[in-house]
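Problem statement: downstream parser choked on a complex file, so we are re-checking the raw output for the adenosine-5'-triphosphate run. The parser issue turned out to be on our end (a line-ending mismatch), but while we're here, posting the original submission so the record is complete.
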Amino acid sequence: MSIEVRNIYKTFGSFVALDNISLEFPTGGLAALLGPSGCGKTTLLRIIAGLEVADRGAVLLGGEDVSDIHVRERRVGFVFQHYALFRHMTVFENVAFALRVKPRRLRPSDAAIQARVRELLELVQLEWLADRFPSQLSGGQRQRVALARALAAEPRVLLLDEPFGALDAKVRKELRRWLRRLHDELRVTSIFVTHDQEEALEIADRVVVMNRGRVEQAGAPREVVESPATPFVADFLDLDDHGPAWLVQAKIRHRGYVLPPADNLEATRHEDCPFELPTPSLAPVARPAGIERTA
Ligand SMILES: Nc1ncnc2c1ncn2[C@@H]1O[C@H](COP(=O)(O)OP(=O)(O)OP(=O)(O)O)[C@@H](O)[C@H]1O
């Protein structure tokens, strides 16, 4: 289901948190809201969810204006950075919760709930932990349970606010790739919030760069990296860390280097290169002798 926001304006007192935001998120996409702390990412996500009300503007799900529809009726799934699981419930019961609290006439039978929860736990690869309690899980496992729980309600769209923000870098990297694969399988229109450029560029198919309550640029990762629309975007995407192969190559081009032809590429390290090169498993990088300065 598509998501659209039209002319969203939101203030907190005299502070303008969102200043006339209009965006479209096509059905089945995985989009990232990217920007520095305080730029309005979470506020926009909460308005889409129905957890926050905009002063002006509209939210449309599948073309239908849901601005006045209560969060419960929007059928939106959320996963937050610190979205606490119910501590006194097992993993299984946490995931089953959304099904058990449905009104009686919509509630699946016990057998159907069992089957659905097993299926979801299998999807997030945690069926072997069904009987554990949240305190017996790692942070990454907890977030996967939170995702399974969000999916249990069969959301029409999925909103994730820094879902892996509290995890260490390695787990975070693994989980974001896993999320991408899961999304490829499910194709539920999803938006996630992050302040991590690499995370957004690596897994999203559309990146919205925000700054001070405004959209600076929205486009495919390659587009925002290769053709930043504003100085802010160029500056914000100037990554210290390496990213995927095409991103590293784009960075090389932007810094005044010309890449040698592809068959001349090999994984190596070059003293002149202004940033750390990726490991061979991540990407091919330029052979030292093949790199020419353009300026
Ligand atoms: N309930 C509130 N009352 C007053 N100001 C708020 C409230 N919620 C958010 N803000 C302000 O609105 C701005 C946008 O906040 P928001 O949480 O959307 O930013 P963000 O981009 O998600 O930041 P972060 O990456 O730090 O989570 C911030 O300056 C914040 O202080």
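For whoever reads this later: Residues 252-295 have pLDDT under 50 and may be disordered.
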